[in-house]
Protein backbone atom coordinates (compact mmCIF):
# COMPACT_ATOMS: atom_id res chain seq x y z
CA UNK A 1 0.00 0.00 0.00
CA UNK A 2 1.15 3.54 -0.73
CA UNK A 3 -0.25 6.93 0.30
CA UNK A 4 -0.09 9.73 -2.27
CA UNK A 5 -0.85 13.30 -1.15
CA UNK A 6 -2.49 15.65 -3.66
CA UNK A 7 -3.23 19.27 -2.83
CA UNK A 8 -4.23 20.55 -6.28
CA UNK A 9 -5.79 19.13 -9.47
CA UNK A 10 -3.17 17.15 -11.37
CA UNK A 11 -2.45 14.16 -13.58
CA UNK A 12 -1.27 10.97 -11.91
CA UNK A 13 0.18 7.77 -13.28
CA UNK A 14 -0.05 4.66 -11.12
CA UNK A 15 2.12 1.66 -11.99
CA UNK A 16 2.20 -1.90 -10.72
CA UNK A 17 5.37 -3.80 -11.54
CA UNK A 18 5.79 -7.50 -10.92
CA UNK A 19 9.16 -8.71 -9.66
CA UNK A 20 11.14 -10.53 -12.34
CA UNK A 21 11.71 -13.47 -10.00
CA UNK A 22 8.03 -13.84 -9.19
CA UNK A 23 6.42 -17.25 -9.68
CA UNK A 24 3.29 -15.56 -11.00
CA UNK A 25 3.47 -15.92 -14.79
CA UNK A 26 1.16 -14.15 -17.29
CA UNK A 27 -1.32 -12.95 -14.67
CA UNK A 28 -4.72 -11.52 -15.41
CA UNK A 29 -4.57 -7.87 -14.32
CA UNK A 30 -7.52 -5.77 -13.15
CA UNK A 31 -7.51 -2.17 -11.91
CA UNK A 32 -10.22 -1.00 -9.54
CA UNK A 33 -11.29 2.30 -8.02
CA UNK A 34 -13.14 1.27 -4.86
CA UNK A 35 -15.48 -1.30 -6.48
CA UNK A 36 -15.42 0.11 -10.05
CA UNK A 37 -13.25 -1.66 -12.64
CA UNK A 38 -10.83 0.47 -14.68
CA UNK A 39 -8.88 -0.51 -17.80
CA UNK A 40 -5.12 -0.01 -17.65
CA UNK A 41 -3.86 2.52 -20.18
CA UNK A 42 -0.38 1.13 -20.78
CA UNK A 43 1.36 -2.20 -20.46
CA UNK A 44 4.89 -3.53 -20.74
CA UNK A 45 6.55 -6.74 -19.61
CA UNK A 46 5.53 -7.32 -15.98
CA UNK A 47 4.30 -3.71 -15.67
CA UNK A 48 0.79 -2.20 -15.86
CA UNK A 49 -0.16 1.48 -15.52
CA UNK A 50 -3.20 3.73 -15.43
CA UNK A 51 -3.25 7.48 -16.00
CA UNK A 52 -5.71 9.61 -14.04
CA UNK A 53 -6.72 13.26 -14.19
CA UNK A 54 -7.69 14.26 -10.65
CA UNK A 55 -9.75 17.45 -10.76
CA UNK A 56 -12.23 17.06 -7.87
CA UNK A 57 -12.21 15.59 -4.39
CA UNK A 58 -14.65 12.86 -5.50
CA UNK A 59 -11.84 11.32 -7.57
CA UNK A 60 -9.66 10.83 -4.50
CA UNK A 61 -9.68 7.46 -2.77
CA UNK A 62 -8.17 4.00 -3.21
CA UNK A 63 -6.99 2.55 -6.51
CA UNK A 64 -5.86 -1.08 -6.67
CA UNK A 65 -4.24 -3.37 -9.19
CA UNK A 66 -5.11 -7.05 -8.76
CA UNK A 67 -2.96 -9.76 -10.37
CA UNK A 68 -4.52 -13.21 -10.69
CA UNK A 69 -2.82 -16.43 -11.69
CA UNK A 70 -1.99 -19.49 -9.65
CA UNK A 71 -2.22 -17.06 -6.74
CA UNK A 72 -3.61 -13.54 -6.30
CA UNK A 73 -1.64 -10.50 -5.24
CA UNK A 74 -2.55 -6.83 -5.20
CA UNK A 75 -1.24 -3.33 -4.56
CA UNK A 76 -3.25 -0.30 -3.41
CA UNK A 77 -2.65 3.42 -3.88
CA UNK A 78 -4.47 5.85 -1.56
CA UNK A 79 -4.94 9.28 -3.15
CA UNK A 80 -5.68 11.82 -0.42
CA UNK A 81 -5.33 15.47 0.54
CA UNK A 82 -2.18 16.20 2.58
CA UNK A 83 -2.46 15.09 6.20
CA UNK A 84 -1.74 17.42 9.10
CA UNK A 85 1.16 16.62 11.35
CA UNK A 86 -0.59 17.03 14.70
CA UNK A 87 0.39 15.95 18.22
CA UNK A 88 -0.68 12.57 19.54
CA UNK A 89 0.13 13.13 23.21
CA UNK A 90 -1.85 15.68 25.26
CA UNK A 91 -0.37 19.12 25.82
CA UNK A 92 -0.11 19.56 29.61
CA UNK A 93 0.33 23.03 31.08
CA UNK A 94 -0.76 25.14 34.05
CA UNK A 95 -3.18 27.94 34.81
CA UNK A 96 -1.81 31.34 33.82
CA UNK A 97 0.64 29.87 31.28
CA UNK A 98 0.56 29.94 27.46
CA UNK A 99 -0.37 26.93 25.31
CA UNK A 100 1.09 26.66 21.80
CA UNK A 101 -0.25 24.34 19.08
CA UNK A 102 1.49 24.02 15.71
CA UNK A 103 0.00 22.44 12.57
CA UNK A 104 2.19 21.43 9.62
CA UNK A 105 1.52 20.00 6.16
CA UNK A 106 3.85 18.96 3.38
CA UNK A 107 2.06 21.27 0.89
CA UNK A 108 1.04 24.92 1.04
CA UNK A 109 -2.52 25.35 2.32
CA UNK A 110 -4.92 27.91 0.88
CA UNK A 111 -6.38 28.73 4.30
CA UNK A 112 -6.24 27.67 7.94
CA UNK A 113 -9.06 27.48 10.51
CA UNK A 114 -8.98 26.61 14.22
CA UNK A 115 -11.82 25.07 16.26
CA UNK A 116 -12.53 23.92 19.80
CA UNK A 117 -14.77 20.92 20.50
CA UNK A 118 -17.95 21.68 22.40
CA UNK A 119 -19.54 18.29 22.88
CA UNK A 120 -20.30 17.05 19.36
CA UNK A 121 -19.90 20.50 17.78
CA UNK A 122 -16.83 22.38 16.63
CA UNK A 123 -16.78 26.04 17.65
CA UNK A 124 -14.79 28.34 15.39
CA UNK A 125 -12.00 30.24 17.17
CA UNK A 126 -12.26 33.85 16.13
CA UNK A 127 -9.33 36.19 16.68
CA UNK A 128 -10.49 39.79 17.09
CA UNK A 129 -8.81 42.97 18.36
CA UNK A 130 -11.28 43.04 21.29
CA UNK A 131 -9.82 39.92 22.88
CA UNK A 132 -6.28 38.98 23.77
CA UNK A 133 -7.13 35.34 24.51
CA UNK A 134 -6.08 33.80 21.19
CA UNK A 135 -3.37 34.54 18.67
CA UNK A 136 -3.11 32.79 15.30
CA UNK A 137 0.20 33.11 13.47
CA UNK A 138 0.81 31.88 9.93
CA UNK A 139 4.51 31.09 9.98
CA UNK A 140 4.41 29.92 6.35
CA UNK A 141 1.90 28.55 3.85
CA UNK A 142 2.41 25.07 5.31
CA UNK A 143 2.77 25.94 9.03
CA UNK A 144 0.13 27.54 11.25
CA UNK A 145 0.30 28.27 14.98
CA UNK A 146 -2.34 28.87 17.68
CA UNK A 147 -1.43 30.49 20.99
CA UNK A 148 -3.84 30.49 23.95
CA UNK A 149 -2.92 33.11 26.53
CA UNK A 150 -3.70 33.37 30.27
CA UNK A 151 -4.86 29.77 30.56
CA UNK A 152 -7.72 28.83 32.85
CA UNK A 153 -9.46 25.51 33.55
CA UNK A 154 -12.12 26.53 30.99
CA UNK A 155 -9.49 26.27 28.24
CA UNK A 156 -9.13 22.55 28.93
CA UNK A 157 -10.38 20.41 26.00
CA UNK A 158 -9.86 19.28 22.40
CA UNK A 159 -8.78 21.66 19.62
CA UNK A 160 -8.69 21.16 15.84
CA UNK A 161 -6.82 22.89 13.05
CA UNK A 162 -8.12 22.60 9.49
CA UNK A 163 -6.09 23.22 6.36
CA UNK A 164 -7.91 23.90 3.09
CA UNK A 165 -6.61 22.75 -0.31
CA UNK A 166 -8.08 22.91 -3.79
CA UNK A 167 -9.00 19.21 -3.58
CA UNK A 168 -10.41 19.31 -0.04
CA UNK A 169 -9.38 19.83 3.56
CA UNK A 170 -7.87 17.86 6.42
CA UNK A 171 -7.91 18.26 10.19
CA UNK A 172 -5.39 17.81 12.99
CA UNK A 173 -6.37 17.10 16.61
CA UNK A 174 -4.84 18.50 19.81
CA UNK A 175 -5.80 17.75 23.41
CA UNK A 176 -5.05 20.41 26.02
CA UNK A 177 -4.98 19.68 29.76
CA UNK A 178 -4.78 22.71 32.04
CA UNK A 179 -3.69 21.87 35.59
CA UNK A 180 -3.99 23.92 38.76
CA UNK A 181 -0.77 25.52 39.98
CA UNK A 182 -1.18 23.35 43.11
CA UNK A 183 -0.97 20.16 41.05
CA UNK A 184 2.87 19.88 41.13
CA UNK A 185 2.82 20.37 44.92
CA UNK A 186 0.38 17.52 45.63
CA UNK A 187 3.00 14.71 45.62
CA UNK A 188 5.27 16.82 47.86
CA UNK A 189 2.41 17.62 50.26
CA UNK A 190 1.48 13.93 50.40
CA UNK A 191 5.06 13.02 51.36
CA UNK A 192 5.13 15.79 54.01
CA UNK A 193 1.84 14.52 55.45
CA UNK A 194 3.22 10.97 55.68
CA UNK A 195 6.38 12.22 57.41
CA UNK A 196 4.33 14.28 59.89
CA UNK A 197 2.15 11.26 60.71
CA UNK A 198 5.23 9.06 61.15
CA UNK A 199 7.02 11.58 63.41
CA UNK A 200 3.87 12.12 65.49
CA UNK A 201 3.42 8.37 65.91
CA UNK A 202 7.03 7.93 67.06
CA UNK A 203 6.72 10.89 69.49
CA UNK A 204 3.50 9.54 71.03
CA UNK A 205 5.01 6.06 71.34
CA UNK A 206 8.10 7.40 73.14
CA UNK A 207 5.92 9.53 75.43
CA UNK A 208 3.77 6.51 76.25
CA UNK A 209 6.88 4.38 76.88
CA UNK A 210 8.34 6.95 79.31
CA UNK A 211 5.10 7.21 81.26
CA UNK A 212 4.87 3.45 81.49
CA UNK A 213 8.51 3.26 82.63
CA UNK A 214 7.91 5.86 85.39
CA UNK A 215 4.78 4.06 86.50
CA UNK A 216 6.78 0.82 86.80
CA UNK A 217 9.47 2.54 88.91
CA UNK A 218 6.85 3.86 91.41
CA UNK A 219 5.32 0.42 91.70
CA UNK A 220 8.76 -1.09 92.40
CA UNK A 221 9.50 1.56 95.13
CA UNK A 222 6.17 0.82 96.85
CA UNK A 223 6.90 -2.92 96.89
CA UNK A 224 10.42 -2.25 98.31
CA UNK A 225 8.95 -0.12 101.12
CA UNK A 226 6.44 -2.79 101.98
TrEMBL record:
Residues 1-76, 82-180 form the Ig-like domain. One of its GO terms (biological process) is cell-cell adhesion. One of its GO terms (cellular component) is membrane. InterPro entries: Ig-like_dom, Ig-like_dom_sf, Ig-like_fold, Ig_sub. The keyword Transmembrane applies. The keyword Transmembrane applies. The chain crosses the membrane at residues 188-208. Keywords: Disulfide bond, Membrane, Repeat, Transmembrane, Transmembrane helix. It comes from the Eukaryota. Pfam families: Ig_3 (PF13927). PROSITE patterns: IG_LIKE. This is EMB protein. It comes from Orthonyx spaldingii (Chowchilla). The lineage of its organism: Eukaryota, Metazoa, Chordata, Craniata, Vertebrata.
Amino acid sequence: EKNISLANPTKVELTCKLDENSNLKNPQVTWKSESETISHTSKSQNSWSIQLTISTSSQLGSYSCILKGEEEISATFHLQVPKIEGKEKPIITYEGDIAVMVCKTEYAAMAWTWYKSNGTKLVHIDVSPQTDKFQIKRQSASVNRLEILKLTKEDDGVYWCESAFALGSSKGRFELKVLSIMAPLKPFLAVVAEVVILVTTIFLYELYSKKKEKGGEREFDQIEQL
